[in-house]
Structures are given as C-alpha cells and as structure tokens.
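Design job #97: recover the sequence.
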C-alpha cells in the first residue's frame, strides 16, 4: 500500500500551492482565501454562486466566507445580486475587474512554470491520476462532487445537440455545461 507516500506527496504539493497562492494573492492585495473564493465564483454555475455553496466547496466557516465576500465586494471584484424568486438568497457575480485579476493570476506563475517543464504525455498522465484520486476521495467520503454538467447524471443531450438539466428542469448552454455545480452527481453513481 502506498497510502503514506501518496499522502506525503499530496500534502507537500498542498503546502507548495499555498505558498504560491499567498505570493500571487499578495501581488494583487488579496489573501489566499480571497483568491480561492474569487476563482471558485468564476468557475461555478448559477446554482452554485451563493455564500452557502462557497462554504461547502471550500470547507470554510460561514463567517470567513461572508467576510471574504464583503472584502471582494469592496474591491469591486464581485457583486451581489438578489435571487429573482427568493430575495433572501444572494448570488455572487464576478465583475469584469475580478475576471481580469484572475486571468492575470490563475494558473499562478509558479504552477504554469512547472507545467511548462512537463511534456504533454506527462501532463496527461498526471491529470488522469489526480482526477482519479479526487473522484475516489470524494466518493469514498461521500462528499459533494462539485463536478461539471458534462459528467453529471442529470445532464441530458437532446437530439439537436443541445443540453438539458433533468434536476432543475432547465436548458443548459454550451458554456454552462463547463461550469462546476453543487448539485452535480457523477454518471457512474447511477
Ligand atoms: S446537469 Fe448536473 S451539474 Fe449540470 S446544472 Fe444540472 S445538476 Fe448541475
């Protein structure tokens, strides 16, 4: 069993990524958690852009997430929008300034440099192995998958090539199916 070795590798990578995120965030006046929340909000769909979903995804406390969103709002990197049907729910949209900051900082410079020193086959191999580790971790611990529509059991492809979500009963655009969702369930769970 390689449990200890894998744990040490993932732990070390996690530590290095934290250093990387701290440096990158500091260049833009952001703490690592603020950069993480901004990145999550830019990658999730409209069913997952609430403070509660951010809390679930990052495993942070409600207080930390609330404070982080307030800071991002003050910096005009995100904007709160009340839900059309339930005014108690807020959706958090990333502003053009937020998207611009992310395009300049994610992937971080250190990480991009690392990947540029790996061949395409090496990158594909690492990607597949990490994907397998992530999916197995989530399944083994019965956690929310936060995957994308393309791999979700509720995603239905219509005859005309368009997509439809059978959970929320709504059509999905080509760009929406690439976003992460708090309601995602793996096709293989069927
Ligand atoms: S198809 Fe799945 S991932 Fe996509 S919006 Fe529906 S529940 Fe979410």
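Job complete. Output follows.
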């Amino acid at each position: 069993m390689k449990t200890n070795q894998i744990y040490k590798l993932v732990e070390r990578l996690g530590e290095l990524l934290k250093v990387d995120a701290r440096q990158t965030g500091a260049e833009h006046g952001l703490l690592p958690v603020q950069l993480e929340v901004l990145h999550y909000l830019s990658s999730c769909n409209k069913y997952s852009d609430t403070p509660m979903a951010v809390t679930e995804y990052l495993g942070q406390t409600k207080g930390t997430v609330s404070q982080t969103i307030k800071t991002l709002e003050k910096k005009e990197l995100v904007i709160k929008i009340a839900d059309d049907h339930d005014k108690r729910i807020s959706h958090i949209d990333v502003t053009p300034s937020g998207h611009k900051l992310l395009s300049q900082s994610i992937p971080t410079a250190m990480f991009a440099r690392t990947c540029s020193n790996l061949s395409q086959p090496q990158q594909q191999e690492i990607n597949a192995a990490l994907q397998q580790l992530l999916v197995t971790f989530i399944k083994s611990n019965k956690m929310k998958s936060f995957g994308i529509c393309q791999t979700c059991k509720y995603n239905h492809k219509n005859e005309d090539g368009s997509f439809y979500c059978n959970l929320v009963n709504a059509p999905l655009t080509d760009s929406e199916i690439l976003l992460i969702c708090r309601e995602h369930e793996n096709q293989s769970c069927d």
